[in-house]
Predict the 3D structure of the following.
Amino acid sequence: MGSKNKLRRFRENETFENVIQPSREELEKDQFSLKGNWNKDFFKNDNPIVLELGCGKGEYTIGLSKQDSTKNFIGIDIKGARFWRGAKTAIEEDLENVAFLRTQIELIDRVFAENEVDEIWITFPDPQIKYKRTKHRLTNAEFLQKYKHILKAEGLVNLKTDSEFMHGYTLGLLHGEGHEILYAHHDIYKNEYSPKAVREIQTFYEKQYLDQGKPITYIQFRIK
């Protein structure tokens, strides 16, 4: 993507009512006004809140919102030029249960209050295979504790990935820490019992992986 195109998208994001872009300083000082107030002040309803972490173009955020209008969906990514597409689509299609938030995932507990979130989706994250990159894996022990803080007691986490490494790493961690695994499969398109949302929503890159014959894996779990 050219730099001019990126700048245009950044400028357009600033005009979108469904895009929130707090400063890092604001979050680090714990001064973000929507924390604990997403339902009341932004969505203006009491519907469950579902997050997509590292949402990219927002394909899952948009897809899930179309499947269930009784929930609120927030796509989160630090790269605003990417989720511009999802934000624009939500506006064009009058999807009032969709928002996009530009921030780092490690600040997630500065953005949402304790027990404010009902469900989290992590779709095709960078597996960060090198050991020294473990701290950046979105399913490492530290991130799981951040998710636990903002999730309600029965809150769900979904991991969908093409990375066998990420799938295996996460399963091992979940077993080792005693978390509740509700569903796990190493090839969802070969399992007729795979959840609807996992099979029917496909990202741009997922379609490429499928064309290459790569299996898509999925885990759903609760953090204990």
About this structure: Strands lie at 19-20, 49-53, 72-77, 98-102, 117-123, 151-161, 180-185, 217-222.
